Amino acid sequence: MTKNINSVSITVLFFVLLVASTEILKSEAQTFCFECGPVPFLGTNADCFNCCKTKYGSPPVVSGVVEGSEKHCHCYC
């Protein structure tokens, strides 16, 4: 019985170390960091991303999305 518990403990420890080392649990969440372009922004999300990359660089900017009722171009880092 003790041998089985030790085996399970070692397996769980190995799994936790594997997950931590491969960053499987790393969040893909992005945070709003800048605005770009005129309001309302009449372009597409791709145009917004290009505006963000040109103005702020990539990285830190990883995406650009046209959002809101007033159509703002929001840059996300």
Report on this structure.
With 77 residues, this protein is of the alpha+beta class. It has one domain. Helices cover 43% and strands 19% of the residues. It is elongated. The mean pLDDT is 79.
How would you briefly describe this protein structure?
The protein is an alpha+beta fold and 77 residues long. The protein contains two helices and three strands. It has helices spanning 2-22, 45-56, and strands at 32-36, 63-67, 72-76.
Fold blueprint:
Blueprint: H1 2-22, E1 32-36, H2 45-56, E2 63-67, E3 72-76
Antiparallel strand pairs: 1-3, 2-3
What key attributes describe this structure?
alpha+beta; signal
Order of helices and strands: HEHEE
Number of domains as seen in the coordinates: 1
What's the arrangement of strands in the largest beta sheet? 1-3-2
- The counted number of beta strands is 3
Overall residue-averaged pLDDT value: 79
Helix content: 40-55%
What is the alpha-carbon Rg in Å?
Answer: 22 Å
Unreliable residue stretches? none
Signal peptide: 1-29
Keywords: Signal
